[in-house]
Amino acid sequence: MNWGIFEGILSGVNKYSTAFGRIWLSLVFIFRVLVYLVTAERVWSDDHKDFDCNTRQPGCSNVCFDEFFPVSHVRLWALQLILVTCPSLLVVMHVAYRKAREKKYQEASGESGEHIYLDPGKKRGGLWWTYVCSLVFKAGVDTAFLYVFHSFYPQYTLPPVVKCNATPCGNIVDCFISKPSEKNIFTLFMVVTAAICILLNLVELTYLVGKRCRECRAVRRAHTTCLGHHLHWAASPCKQDDLLSGDLIFLGCYTPPPLLPDRPRDYVTRTVL
What is the largest CA-CA distance in the chain? Predict the structure, then answer.
């Protein structure tokens, strides 16, 4: 399997990620993808060939192998890594869509200097929701696969000997798994790295939500302060002396709120007195 395309996808989304997201990307590539490509495929390459049972009953070894290994570790890990990296592709596509929309708007508006997005890669609006949903999806996928592994292989370990009495085996036979200790080591390693990735996704999700809540509170405080300032000014007896008929004034704060970067002029309310 060629993993170069996933490397390009994840390296492209790296510049749109937070510090926790960059750590997650490094962990996925170094401790999951590279370990999978370099070692895991080789360790499990001979699992069926070296699965021996102490019987010569035709078909018994194949049936017992299918009973204890319904899905190969390697194929489960490949599917897991593909699903985990797909949300990063959605983030890159969303940023590309915003850049194309901004470019088309600039071509249509000419030299007006207006923008739809001041920074298409900044996590605001729909891109913020896309990024948050990608974190939830990635954590959910890793959690689901950890549950599946635990269901197929209790405690994520393989015993050196398994007993099988499935048809067409005439009686209970002993079957021996090839290199169980080495396989257990790599299985536990992949499980631990997946758990760390889940933790990083949750930490990054908490960071983004907490940052958004702080920005919302800052905007509300700024609006409350500006409203109090205008009410105090309106009650002043000198207000008529300060204004002339037809003067244009701004009602609102001069500092744009951090939650409205895509349309920086929307927060300004103007009126003629």
Answer: 107
Residue 25, domain member (yes or no): yes
Q: Where are the beta strands (DSSP E) in the chain?
A: 52-53, 161-164, 173-176, 248-251, 269-272
Task: List residues bridging with 53 in a β-sheet.
Answer: 175
Task: Give the pLDDT confidence score for residue 200 in this predicted structure.
Answer: 94
Domain total in the chain:
1
Residue 89 to residue 80: CA distance in whole angstroms: 15
pLDDT, the chain, mean = 77
| Alpha-carbon span 238 to 71, nearest angstrom | 82
Residue 258 lies in a domain: no
What is the per-residue pLDDT across 48-57, written as a single tens digit (0 to 9) for each? Answer: 777 888 888 8
Q: How many helices (H) and strands (E) does the chain have?
A: 9, 5
- pTM (two decimals): 0.72
Residues with Cβ within 8 Å of 1's Cβ and at least 6 positions away in sequence, in order, are 78
Exposed (0-12), middle (13-18) or buried (19+): which is 130, by Cβ within 10 Å?
A: middle
What is residue 260's predicted lDDT score, i.e. its pLDDT? 47
Q: Which residues of 117-126 are buried (b: 16+ CB within 10 A; e: fewer)?
A: beebbebbee
pLDDT tens digits for range 189-203: 999 999 999 999 999
